[in-house]
Amino acid sequence: MKNFVSIDSFLKKGAILSLSRDLFVLGWGELSANASCQGAGFFKQNFDLSESRPWRVFSNYSYLSKDELREFMERVPIQPGQNKRQWSSAIFSEFENKFIRIQDHIQMGKISKAVPVTYESSEGCLTSFEISHFITRALKTSDSNYLYGYWDDEGGVLGLTPEVLFRKNGKNLFSMALAGTKESHCSASLLNDEKEIFEHRLVVEEMDKALMDLGQNTWGKTEEQCVGSLTHLKTEVNCILQSEFSFDQIVAQLHPTPALGVFPKKSNLNWFLTEVSDSARGIFGAPFGFQSNLSEGFCIVAIRNLYWDGRQTKLYSGCGIVEKSQIKKEWKELEVKRNSVKQMLGL
Q1: Which residues lie closer than 8 Å to 265 by C-beta, 6 or more apart?
Q2: How many domains does the chain have?
Q3: Is residue 139 part of a domain?
Q4: Residue 151 belongs to a domain with what CATH number?
Q5: pLDDT tens-digit readout, 309-324
Q6: CB 312 within 8 A of CB 338
Q7: How many whole angstroms separate alpha carbon 173 and alpha carbon 142?
Q8: Mind listing the pLDDT tens digit for each residue in 197-216?
Q9: Minimal CA–CA distance to 252: which of 287, 216, 295?
Q10: Which of 150, 186, 324, 325 pairs as cysteine with 15 (C-beta 3.0–4.6 A)?
């Protein structure tokens, strides 16, 4: 199995990221946390980019196909009678306070959009069996999602995201704006929804400004993308970089996009981080990625995940608030997004 040691080593301390529909990179073994990385390594940051040593460098890496990864995960013994987790509900009053705060700023003309988050929690951290079970479940979901995860002795994260922050290959950079959501069974098109289109265009506008500082942009057509039980608006963009930018520099330039942050970003990011964003959200909505060398890297936006430490596991979701947002509809969207994670991971 391609230079693999043992399933136990990987599940004790490891990382994973799907680089494409049929290619996964895994890291395991001896681990160091570094401020920079000149070769291969995983990039794990907090949402507010406060982690001073975001690079996780393992002693071993392997690239596996989906079939090889599925075969590898089958080495974990089945544990019959494993109880499903019990989740505490998200707190509406906390969300309501954030919603009002955002709408006040919108009415004052300071912002056009912001993205608050809420969460459900469950006691205890994920076990090795749960990690393996969730990875196996994730392999059966939509190919439009990217599987990612990292865990060590202190905690971890595991999720499936449809959102790519960037893919870098030399001076070619790919990214996307992903904003606007509906349940996939709804027949009405997001392309005809004024509120969702407005929200999406704010993301495109802010990202275009950020990318213009890096190079020359070519945007594609806005389309609907079905990702399991949810459908989003997506617009892809290709950028020819004007010079060699590092993985860290591109992250700093793009993150957070208005899909997870605030618009306009430059004058309101500090307000957003202190007044709207949850300081305990950790990696939710943060950049997470892998670079094989200085010229090639892939970075996703860490949404639709489980995030745990030594005490509890959290399941976050976020929604974009604009002037025409209705609080009950947004609260429902938050629940639908969390339920999609539970469905994908078999919770």
Answers
A1: 206, 256, 258
A2: 1
A3: yes
A4: 3.60.120.10
A5: 878 999 999 999 999 9
A6: no
A7: 24
A8: 999 999 999 999 999 999 99
A9: 287
A10: 150
Task: Please indicate, yes or no, if residue 2 is contained in any of the structural domains.
Answer: no
Predicted structure pTM score? 0.95
Query: How far apart are the C-alpha atoms of 82 and 221, rounded to whole Å?
Result: 46
Strand pairing partners for 113?
263
Q: Round to whole Å and give the CA distance between 328 and 221.
A: 31
Strands 172-183 and 230-241: antiparallel
Per-residue pLDDT reduced to its tens digit, 59-71: 999 999 999 999 9
Structural domain for 27, as ranges: 7-345
User: Given phi > 0 = left and psi -120 to 50 = alpha, else beta, which region is 82?
Assistant: beta
Which two tokens mark 206? 């802010």
**Would you say residue 150 lies in a domain?**
yes
Query: Which residue in 324, 309, 252 sits closest to 119, CA to CA?
Result: 309
- β-bridge mates for residue 24, sequence order: 18, 64
